[in-house]
Amino acid sequence: MRIGELSRRTGVSERALRYYEEQGLLQPRRLPSGYREYRELDIAAVQRIRVLLDAGLNTAQIVEVLPCMVTDDGRLLPSCPELVDELVKQRDRIGAAIAELETTRSNLTRIIDNERR
């Protein structure tokens, strides 16, 4: 299938699909005309990429973890034990960032409230 059809079937823009290819996340076959040709398996790969992006991973991280991810009954699961430790570290980094932002928001709220008195 060509990029337009993959875009329609996944809901991901052609631009994003080209970016995924640039980042090494997708490897479509190139036809002699230069057109990209995607396989049915690429639909699932794009869906996995989107889930991982939504989970806060960047494309460089996804390149590393994607080979260790499987889909089971519609759920994305790590298949490499060492990957779980890395995902826990990522989750903890996100939690720390959230805590820092909540503190910053509280400090700003306090400043705003003090001004209103």
From TrEMBL:
Keyword DNA-binding included in the entry's annotation: yes
Residues spanning the signal sequence: none
Name of this chain's protein: Transcriptional regulator
Species the sequence originates in: Actinoalloteichus hymeniacidonis
SMART domains assigned to the protein according to its UniProt record, in alphabetical order: HTH_MERR
Keywords from the UniProt entry: DNA-binding
Domain HTH merR-type, first and last residues per copy: 1-68
Molecular-function GO terms, alphabetical: DNA binding; DNA-binding transcription factor activity
Keyword DNA-binding belongs to the record: yes
